[in-house]
Prior knowledge:
Keywords: Activator, DNA-binding, Transcription, Transcription regulation. The protein is of the alpha+beta class. It is about 35% helix and about 20% strand.
Amino acid sequence: MVETTVALDSFDAKILDVLAVDGRISVTALADRIGLSKSPTQARLRKLEADGVIRGYRALFDPILLGRDHVAFVEVRLTDTREVALTAFNRAVLEVPQIEQCHMIAGSFDYLLKVRTQGMTDYRQVLADFISTLPHVAGTSTYVAMQAVKEEGVAPVPPAG
């Protein structure tokens, strides 16, 4: 996997900082906030989008108000960790909407999943019908979250330079 980085100057970093908090801000208001006029701000915004730095804009929903307040973290151990098995697992995870996040882990297990459901009964069904049947799953361990202390944190933009 080849990873590249994009060089950001202080204006690009300011744009990202503002958008991380208010993705619906107008270009005019964004320009005012970062200290540039509208045209260069718009050009920088388009470049950040074209370069893939800004991958999209979305609404954040309150999962509790939508009845999805049960969060479980699931350690997954695989029977096989060759590339073909990892690829099969990765593809299958994308098809399970209750899995909000999936991270490959270095340690005593292979993946850590964040699963959001309506309650324990719903979670047990998702575990039985989907997670346990994912390709190459040898076993799982579940940890139920009691409270989300910090969930929608925004990673700081690295300083320009």
